[in-house]
Write a structure and sequence with these properties.
Blueprint: H1 5-8, E1 19-20, E2 35-36, E3 39-46, E4 58-62, E5 64-65, E6 76-78, E7 97-105, E8 114-123, E9 125-130, E10 133-138, E11 145-148, E12 158-166, E13 179-181, E14 184-194, E15 197-206, E16 211-220, E17 230-235, E18 238-239, E19 241-242, H2 244-253, E20 264-268, E21 283-290, E22 296-304, E23 309-312, E24 315-318, E25 321-322, E26 325-329, H3 343-355, E27 360-362, H4 370-379, E28 382-386, H5 395-399, H6 405-419, E29 425-429, H7 438-450, E30 456-457, H8 459-462, H9 483-491, E31 499-504, H10 515-524, E32 528-533, E33 541-544, E34 559-560, E35 563-564, E36 568-571, H11 599-607, E37 611-617, E38 620-625, E39 635-643, E40 648-653, E41 663-667, E42 679-687, E43 699-701, E44 704-708, E45 736-743, H12 750-754, H13 757-763, E46 771-779, E47 782-791, E48 794-805, E49 808-817, E50 826-833, E51 839-845, E52 860-866, E53 883-892, E54 898-912, H14 916-921, E55 935-942, E56 963-973
Parallel strand pairs: 26-27, 26-32, 27-28, 28-29, 29-30, 31-32
Antiparallel strand pairs: 1-10, 2-14, 3-4, 3-7, 5-14, 6-13, 7-12, 8-11, 8-14, 9-10, 9-12, 15-16, 16-20, 17-18, 17-21, 19-20, 21-22, 23-24, 24-25, 33-36, 34-35, 37-38, 38-41, 39-40, 39-42, 42-43, 42-44, 45-50, 46-47, 47-48, 48-49, 49-56, 50-55, 51-52, 51-53, 53-54, 54-55, 54-56
Helix pairs in contact: 3-4, 6-7
The protein binds beta-D-galactopyranose (GAL) and magnesium ion.
């Protein structure tokens, strides 16, 4: 094929060539009328685009990535770095190129019609041939490309379609997003036919006032326009009326023919039900192109929503209301099929997000699958739609490179042309991490002229000045900005644009510390409106441990609750033999690769709670509606009173009738029983009926208030059996296999590693402290043990006082942490138990994992869980499984034997099968070997998690200070 004109263009190293023979993008959805060409195609992988095509074909699935389908070209993960060193627009000589072929039948009844091929997505250069004849070229890997095949196929005759996909190209330099590199055709391939005279595009403007305007573009594929054709429209049965003014204007202007070309229709829907993410009201809009005799030549159907978006002052308003953006960044991702995702999977993503309080999505960092937007319209999400432009590694070189100018405008405009009619899309984004240059301004210029109805944002521009009116961003949309900077900006008097972080709270491993602090500030600081958590998915690819290959096929039972089945694991960077890669940085989502929610999801759910308990005053409660558009009538509630003595009282709750933003006082539903100690009131809020995303009874939030604080725990020493310690002063206890010892270390989280804390802890020797008893003193039945631990920054003294108390032993501990040890992971005791103690019951926060700076979503109560389930299976094992605010706990065997611990005050506790060393030594979850007993940590204090793997660390208030720490607990056998 060396004489092939498409290859001769060498489009993989020509940034100016964005397409050839490709049709303009359109918002007319042809999926329902199309023939699918999905399925198994003939496939071969060439070493380079110019290599000869041989006879050796194997089947490959379309849509799908060949990197997940048994070829030797495997997935490869890099964040910023390009996979080859040459500067743009160069591509490497070794350039995997997939050749896909199949026959297809062109229906005989398509005679005389315009026949169009649509390739949903191909990365990164697509060449189309039909029966050996060139039919088109396209780039822009995450948007569809359409080609008019009318001249190259014959109805009633079958044809051979060849799609050649070149993996690396000049375009790869602007598709350098932080994700796996794949190759293939990742969205569906379709064929459809229209009349030569057809609806080329339909643009809808539907305002919250009920005003509707529909602009049509009617195009002829060739020949003269017939007389008498016309367009009609109808919305849920109501006819749209042709806009006479518009037609007169256009006729005078001579821009279009009398009516064919650009008719506009208008209507006003009285009493319209407006669209918001809380109330995703949709109407069906049908636009028809009629022949002169009234018969229909073409139809476009879509669902539309009536809503306004505007920026007033520094506030982003939807339908005139200031909203909060509770967002997440979402990639198209699946652990088996990569960037190919089914409608069901996308729906499951959105349903899960709704259930956990999210109301917004940034389509990081490219236009997501078109179905995602249909579902966002339907289920209710605000979408920041982002163009497929990220030139991270060569950002500076490309932003002003005129050779890429066309590509920038092409990508932004094609996204807008595709998605402009979605009510869910409220903001356009010019892309991600591509510096800021003239190419952006060119794209912004096109965008502002074409769609003045929506703001646009671009982080690369906004960072030049959050308030600067000259830069191409209507939103101040930083990433990972320290909260104090955001608040300071909002208070500065200089703010001119809404501040909505495009990325914040990096969810890598055990993370998202201080999320609640962020939201407390956002909700109390005018000018701050939210942000998008980075990110939704952990992009772990399911891999066979033995073969090292991706599983790559959809099947049942491959994973469960975030843990891959035996023999399989979640692969991250480097697991497919990549030499240059960025490791576990690809695993930074709020859900596991199988979409199991991580504990942070519960934190988010509570922070986003639509109904809150604000205060307990004068024996009454203040209930508040924290939504922007809905009342509380879609919610039901149950009061739950958790008493320290173990009792839990419940009563049905009547939620007050509150409009958004309103509060009401309601009487306390229970009389507080005397002498029951600490008392917590929880409002368990569920859906009252079926929501499209949550059946009746789905838990929505669990706001909680402390009604009565705990009295101090006092234990009276008894003259009981003497406490036993060994020669080194270590406690001897029949239920413990390892005596309580000082612990100042945790298996570093990703934040600890990437933020530099872990290195410091290792330098100080905290991961391998050696204990030396210096003094063991007996005092009646009790023992006082003074031990020293020789860390590399000075000796650390630890005292334990063991006293016999009723039924057990009281342990009072203190540690003097020299000043050099500023900011350690934890201060506490660790011990190990005999095997068989399989159930943990605790009174404290739960039931899911919580940490000092991520504890807003775990209500205080009586919880229980099997010990085996307590560790959270973060892809790279690390500190996890902790429970915050634990007041007491029991570890028991099925025969009810075991131990109990009562803490002096609420503490961080963790019970798992793993020592910190076990976790730190493993690179993947499948390498962990559970110990038969329990490893129990009781922490006087535990460091916050923060988000330092990418962004700010935790706040100073969650750091551990040097000096004296004291804690006490009582151990009893059951
Ligand atoms: C941002 C970037 C994302 C991702 C994230 C870190 O800078 O926009 O694509 O790389 O950091 O996970
Ligand atoms: Mg990047």
């Amino acid at each position: 094929m060396t004489d092939d004109p498409l290859l001769a263009l060498r489009p993989w190293e020509s940034p100016e060539v964005t397409s050839w023979g490709r049709l303009p993008m359109s918002a007319v959805d042809r999926r329902a009328q199309a023939l699918s060409l999905d399925g198994d195609w003939r496939f071969q992988l060439l070493p380079a685009p110019t290599a000869a095509v041989g006879d050796d074909w194997t089947p490959a699935r379309v849509p799908g990535a060949w990197t997940l389908q048994g070829t030797d070209d495997l997935p490869w993960y890099t964040n910023v770095r390009m996979p080859w060193p040459d500067f743009p627009p160069a591509s490497p000589a070794a350039n995997p190129t997939g050749v896909y072929e199949r026959e297809f039948d062109v229906p005989a009844e398509w005679a005389g019609r315009r026949i169009v091929l649509q390739v949903g997505a191909a990365e990164s250069v697509l060449l189309v041939h039909v029966d050996g004849r060139p039919a088109g070229i396209s780039k822009d890997s995450h948007l569809a490309a359409e080609f008019d095949l009318s001249d190259v196929v014959r109805p009633g005759v079958s044809a051979t379609l060849r799609l050649t996909v070149v993996k690396w190209s000049d375009a790869t330099h602007i598709e350098d997003q932080d994700q796996w590199w794949h190759g293939g055709i990742t969205r569906s391939v379709l064929l459809y036919a229209t009349d030569p005279l057809h609806l080329a595009d339909v643009t809808v403007r539907a305002a919250a006032s009920g005003e509707l305007r529909v602009d049509c573009r009617v195009r002829d594929a060739g020949g003269a326009l017939p007389e008498g054709w016309y367009v009609s429209g109808e919305i849920d049965g109501q006819l749209l009326v042709q806009d006479a003014e518009f037609d007169r204007f256009n006729a005078a202007d001579d821009r279009v023919s009398d009516f064919l070309g650009e008719p506009r229709m208008c209507a006003r829907v009285p009493g319209v039900r407006t669209w918001t993410a809380e109330t995703p009201e949709l109407y069906g809009l049908t636009v028809r192109l009629h022949r002169a005799d009234g018969t229909v030549a073409d139809t476009s159907y879509r669902r539309i929503g009536f809503r306004d978006v505007e920026i007033v002052g520094r506030d982003l308003l939807v339908n005139g209301e200031r909203i909060y953006v509770r967002g997440v960044n979402r990639h198209d991702f699946h652990p088996l099929t990569g960037r190919t995702v089914s409608r069901n999977d996308m729906r499951a993503d959105l349903v899960l997000l709704k259930r956990f309080g999210f109301n917004a999505i940034r389509t990081a960092h490219y236009p997501n699958d078109p179905t995602l937007y249909d579902l966002a319209d339907e289920l209710g999400f605000y979408v920041v739609d982002e163009a497929d432009i990220e030139s991270h590694d060569h950002a500076h070189e490309i932003a002003d490179d005129p050779r890429y100018l066309n590509a920038f405008v092409d990508r932004v405009s094609r996204m807008v042309l595709r998605d402009k009619n979605h009510p869910s899309v409220i903001i356009w984004s010019l892309g991600n991490e591509s510096d800021y240059g003239a190419n952006h301004d060119a794209a912004a210029g096109w965008l502002r002229r074409h769609d003045p109805t929506r703001p646009l944002q671009y982080e690369g521009a906004a960072k030049l000045g959050w308030a600067d009116p000259a830069v191409a961003s209507d939103i101040a949309c930083p990433m990972y900005a320290p909260l104090e900077d955001c608040v300071a900006h909002a208070l500065s008097g200089e703010q001119t644009k809404p501040l909505i972080q495009c990325e914040y709270s990096h969810a890598m491993g055990n993370s998202n510390g201080t999320l609640a602090d962020h939201w407390a500030a956002i909700e109390s600081t005018p000018g701050l409106q939210g942000g998008f958590i980075w990110e939704f998915w952990d992009h772990g690819i399911l891999q066979c441990v033995n073969s090292g290959r991706p599983v790559g096929r959809v099947g049942a039972g491959l994973y469960d609750n975030g843990v891959a089945a035996p023999g399989l694991r979640w692969a991250y960077g480097g697991d497919f033999g990549e030499t240059i890669h960025d490791g576990a940085f690809i695993a930074d989502g709020v859900v596991f690769p199988d979409r199991t929610p991580k504990p942070v999801m519960y934190e988010h759910r509570e922070i986003a709670a639509p109904v809150r308990l604000e205060a307990f005053r004068h024996e009454g409660l203040v209930v508040a509606n924290h939504q922007c558009f809905r009342g509380l009538d879609w919610l039901a509630g149950t009061w739950e009173l958790a008493l320290a003595d173990g009792r839990v009282l419940t009563a049905p709750a009547e939620l007050p009738d509150l409009r958004p933003g309103e509060t009401a006082a309601v009487p306390l539903p229970f009389e507080l029983p005397a002498d029951s100690g600490e008392a917590w009131l929880t409002l368990r809020v569920t859906t009252a009926g079926d929501e499209p995303w949550a059946p009746h009874g789905t838990e929505i939030c669990t706001p909680q208030l402390l009604l009565r604080a705990a009295p101090e725990v006092r234990e009276t020493p008894v003259s009981g059996p003497r406490v036993q310690v060994d020669g080194d002063g270590l406690l001897i206890h029949p239920l413990l296999t390892s005596a309580p010892a000082l612990s100042l270390w945790r298996a570093p989280t990703d934040n600890d590693e990437l933020g530099g804390m872990a290195a410091r802890w290792r330098e100080w020797g905290l991961d391998s402290l050696v204990r030396k008893a210096v003094d063991v003193r007996r005092d009646g039945g009790g023992v006082t043990v003074l031990a020293e631990y020789a860390g590399n920054a000075g000796v650390i003294r630890h005292e334990q006082v063991f006293t016999p108390v009723q039924g057990g032993i009281r342990v009072e501990e203190s540690v003097d942490l020299p000043d050099a040890y500023a900011d350690v992971a934890r201060v506490g005791s660790v011990f190990e138990t005999v095997s068989g103690l399989d159930l943990l019951e605790w009174y404290g926060q739960g039931p899911w994992e919580s940490y000092p700076d991520r504890a807003a979503g775990a209500p205080v109560g009586h919880h229980s869980a099997p010990v085996d389930s307590l560790l959270t299976p973060y892809l790279r094992p690390q500190e996890s499984g902790g429970r915050h605010g634990v007041r007491r706990f029991r570890l028991s065997a099925p025969d009810a034997s075991g131990l109990s611990v009562v803490l002096d005050r609420p503490r961080q506790v963790s019970v798992t099968r793993f020592r910190a060393d076990d976790l730190a030594a493993a690179t993947h979850h499948d390498q962990l070997k559970p110990r038969p007993g329990c490893v129990v940590h009781i922490d006087a204090a535990h460091r916050g998690l923060g988000t330092a793997s990418c962004g700010p660390d935790t706040f100073p208030s969650y750091l551990l200070q040097p000096g004296t720490h004291r804690w006490a607990w009582t151990l009893r056998a059951l």
